[in-house]
Design a protein that fits this description.
Blueprint (H helix, E strand, L loop, with lengths): L3 E5 L2 E5 L4 E2 L4 E6 L2 E6 L1 H7 L2 E4 L7 E2 L4 E7 L3 E5 L4 E6 L2 H4 L3 H4 L8 E5 L11 H11 L2
Antiparallel strand pairs: 1-2, 3-4, 4-5, 5-11, 6-8, 7-10, 8-9, 10-11
């Protein structure tokens, strides 16, 4: 499955087809009964050089759309949100010493947390890769 490459004003943004997206630029990838979450390539490129990530607490119960922490970059401090309701079961501890993994590999090594969803039906309400690519195009007009 090939990625979608969105080209806008000389910049390219990768949108992976194997996951869903939020209006606030988080991604959610379903793996068995869990959901791996992070921020999109678009989000990390907008933030520029990431210098710190506040990770959520393991065991925390969250609601879809709830603010979970912040990402600090040389450009801005930006909150990130839960794409689905559920319980945080794991966080990416590597980000504590290497937050730049989000810049280097937002869809792989730069994942932020894993969630055990309580309302899996919420996954279907997230943006498809095609809709998310369109959102990026619209926001950059």
């Amino acid at each position: 499955m090939e990625d979608i490459v969105v080209s806008v004003k000389g910049k390219e943004y990768i949108v992976r087809r194997d996951r869903r997206y939020t209006e606030t630029d988080e991604w959610a990838k379903l793996e068995d009964s869990r959901v791996v979450c992070g921020v999109s390539d678009y989000a990390q490129k907008e933030l520029k050089d990431i210098v710190a990530v506040e990770l959520p607490r393991v065991g925390r119960i969250v609601n879809k759309g709830e603010e979970l922490g912040i990402i600090d970059s040389i450009k801005a401090t930006s909150p990130y949100y839960a794409p689905l309701s559920g319980r945080i079961v794991e966080v990416n501890k590597k980000l504590e010493s290497s937050p730049e993994l989000i810049n280097k590999d937002p869809y792989g090594e730069g994942w932020i947390f894993i969630l055990e969803p309580t309302k899996l039906s919420e996954f279907d309400s997230l943006l498809t890769p095609e809709k998310y690519a369109e959102k990026i195009r619209e926001s950059k007009k």
